[in-house]
């Protein structure tokens, strides 16, 4: 079981101070209501609570590229969105970032659940994780790795506002130190 | 797939027929390559968005616009090769059922712009059968130009998303979109009433 699920503060209510509660509230405060995602075990409590909250339109897509296309169209139509994915899903996005989000100056907001580090048990996951930051850096994309609960709200809230005002994508990488990550039990 | 009961039409002609029907500032998303070149050539409108990359994302981008503006009709023009890259998007659209989304597939069975190589689907798969199987019940082949126009009219008052597949020839696009992504996006947002020009 992920550490985050064992923490006493990780409740289900919208006002809780778990990592996923903070992410949900930060999205809401910034009027981000469209949440396409490709699921990830660690993101499960966040996805579950987003589905349960009628403020959000939350749904799975078949691929991460598709989700990026959807929130890009929604942004141009005046509605804000964010994409949830895993590290391996981010690895499918280089072309979409380079040919849609960056050149069209779309404030694409990505939450990436980080696998491949701090106790990864799947070699492929650890390898694909190493491609993520070089891809982000090669496109000079803003990204932050969030490791601490007390910094999460500040980083997420400020980064979303910066993405919108500067019309530039941002990747918020949710590190296992924050979420507990996925451990070798399933 | 060679649907014998469908006439081989022309992309620019079909696109022009569609644009001529738009009277309510409908949004139109043009997929990569010839699809958006012919949309551009049919006459620029502020509600047109032209993709200069991200092959396969015309339907997802249009879905996003449709979800953001449920009172506006949103058209997406996509090539068969592009659609093959993102078939999963058809099920996403079928699940969400945005009634204001109309998808048009220009099917020539080839990657025209790269040298007319046949797509893997060309002789074996049927785009409309794929769409129907993905959950989009309102999917049809246009038999000819007149039938295409009829299907568009029908789609404009439909209560669910529609997909219209058009068998087209191997001609290249007529125009060439100005490759200015920021201006394309900004003009589109003005056209959708999201922003005012400076």
TrEMBL record, chain A:
Matches recorded under InterPro entries: THDP-binding (IPR029061), TPP_dependent_decarboxylase (IPR051818)
GO molecular function: carboxy-lyase activity
SUPFAM superfamilies: Thiamin diphosphate-binding fold (THDP-binding)
UniProt keyword annotations, A-Z: Decarboxylase, Lyase
Record's protein name: Decarboxylase
Automatic annotation (TrEMBL), chain B:
Lineage top rank: taxon: Bacteria
Full protein name: Thiamine pyrophosphate enzyme TPP-binding domain-containing protein
PANTHER family: SULFOPYRUVATE DECARBOXYLASE, SULFOPYRUVATE DECARBOXYLASE SUBUNIT ALPHA
Species per Swiss-Prot/TrEMBL record: Bradyrhizobium betae
Key word Acetylation present: no
Residues that span the membrane, as ranges: 49-68
Domain (Thiamine pyrophosphate enzyme TPP-binding) ranges: 38-166
Molecular function (Gene Ontology), one example: magnesium ion binding
Statement: the UniProt record of this protein carries the keyword Membrane: yes
């Amino acid at each position: 079981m992920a550490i985050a699920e064992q923490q006493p503060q990780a409740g289900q209510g919208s006002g809780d101070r778990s990592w996923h509660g903070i992410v949900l509230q930060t999205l809401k405060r910034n009027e981000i209501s469209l949440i396409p995602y490709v699921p990830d075990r660690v993101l499960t409590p966040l996805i579950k609570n987003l589905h349960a909250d009628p403020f959000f339109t939350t749904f799975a897509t078949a691929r991460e590229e598709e989700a990026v296309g959807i929130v890009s169209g929604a942004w141009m139509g005046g509605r804000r969105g964010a994409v949830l994915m895993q590290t391996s899903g981010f690895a499918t996005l280089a072309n979409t970032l380079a040919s849609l989000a960056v050149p069209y100056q779309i404030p694409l907001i990505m939450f990436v659940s980080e696998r491949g580090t701090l106790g990864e048990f799947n070699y492929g996951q650890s390898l694909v994780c190493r491609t993520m930051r070089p891809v982000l850096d090669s496109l000079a994309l803003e990204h932050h790795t969030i490791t601490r609960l007390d910094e999460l709200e500040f980083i997420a809230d400020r980064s979303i506002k910066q993405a919108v005002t500067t019309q530039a994508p941002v990747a918020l990488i949710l590190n296992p130190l924050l979420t507990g990550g996925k451990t070798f039990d399933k | 797939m060679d649907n014998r009961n469908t006439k081989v039409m022309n992309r620019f002609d079909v696109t022009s027929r569609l644009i001529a029907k738009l009277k309510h500032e409908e949004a139109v998303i043009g997929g990569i390559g010839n699809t958006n070149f012919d949309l551009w050539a049919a006459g620029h409108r502020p509600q047109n968005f032209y993709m200069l990359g991200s092959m396969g994302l015309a339907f997802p981008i249009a879905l996003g616009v449709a979800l953001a503006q449920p009172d506006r009709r949103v058209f997406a023009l996509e090539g068969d090769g592009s659609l093959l890259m993102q078939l999963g998007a058809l099920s996403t659209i079928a699940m969400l059922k945005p009634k204001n989304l109309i998808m048009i597939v220009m099917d020539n069975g080839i990657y025209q712009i790269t040298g007319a190589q046949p797509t893997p689907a060309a002789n074996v798969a049927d785009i409309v059968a794929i769409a129907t199987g993905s959950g989009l019940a309102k999917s049809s082949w246009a038999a000819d130009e007149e039938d295409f126009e009829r299907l568009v009219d029908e789609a404009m008052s439909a209560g669910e998303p529609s997909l219209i597949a058009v068998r087209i020839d191997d001609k290249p696009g007529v125009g060439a979109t100005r490759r200015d992504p920021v201006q394309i996006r900004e003009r589109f947002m003005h056209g959708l009433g999201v922003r005012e020009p400076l």
